[in-house]
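Entry 14. Ran structure prediction on the chain below.
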Amino acid sequence: MSGDESRESLPAPPTVWLLEDSPTHAGRFGAMLGEQYRLEHFADGAALLERLSQGGAPDVLVLDCALPGLGGIEVCRFVRQSRDELALPILMYTGARADSDGLLDSLAAGVNDFVAKSCPPAELLARLRTLVRVSQLHARAHRAEQARRETARLQASTRERFIGILGHDLRSPLAAVLMSAQLQRLDLPADAAPARHLVGVIERSARRMERMIADLLDFARARSEEGIPITRGAVDLGALCRRVIDELTAADPTRDLRLEAEPGVVGQWDADRMEQVVSNLVANALAYRVAATPVTVTVRGEAAEATIEVINEGSIDAQALAALFDPYRRGAGASGRPATGVGLGLYIVQSIVRAHGGAVEAGSAGGRTTFRVTLPRAAERSPP
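Output, structure tokens:
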């Protein structure tokens, strides 16, 4: 054996399960395998399937084509319901000369290869080695994929913990900056316009950073096992949307924000979190709308659920729609420049809505983009 073959060999011989009702043929098969393989013999298909259901599997299955009861083809069909041709290779082993119908039936059932019992030992061993190699390569690829996913999970977990710690630790110094700016503004004389403008810039920048940090903390909560916490209470959804629109309009009176709300759409929701949902969706619509066009918020209620829609002029292509709620996604705003923020707003919207047992979706057609939030009006168990 060469050095390369030695390095690639398994610690234990490959395992072969043989389905064969003839002790004579089973003995001959075992003699051909010798000590190169570990052989486990089954006289009927039901016993083999029961053994397979108990856990564990061979490297290769060898099935007699024609048996009383469950024959090789029937056993193959059962196996292929849970294991494909790479996960568990199957060699069909028959005493009869392979006719075209039998070959087609075997291949249709999911057999990897087909060999006659009368074949020379060298041919049988060559076919087994090929199938064992297929099984080993699949197992190796599966282990590598599991390791890759675990590494990615650990990296994501570490990153999210870091984000949470960073966001928490930034709040205190940022609060100090904001308070200092507010005190400076109070101490400035009325005619100190340049200084007041500079203090205003500091305050607005600090407020924007405050929102970014809040988004980072919500992102960390959303990715934790507990998820974003919500506190339910009776909420009038139309009144809530009115408050959000009034606040956004007061911040910039040039915005054209419209509300169409049915009266009495009341349900059990977290008012603060739902204000965050509406505010994020409207802010997103303002950032990506066609310039100087309105943003419309609608509220509708049915017996068991309520719906909020945020509609703006402007289209989103299909590729962008598919990843719209992914974290850290930012597109070009109405000005053509990237939108401000860290790209977590829509992800947080989705997390809050799901915590309420609802769903959010986006669609773009006819030159308009619509975000639709659907919420159960009564408290339901949140999805995992």
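DSSP finds eleven helices and twelve strands in the chain. Will compare against last week's run tomorrow.
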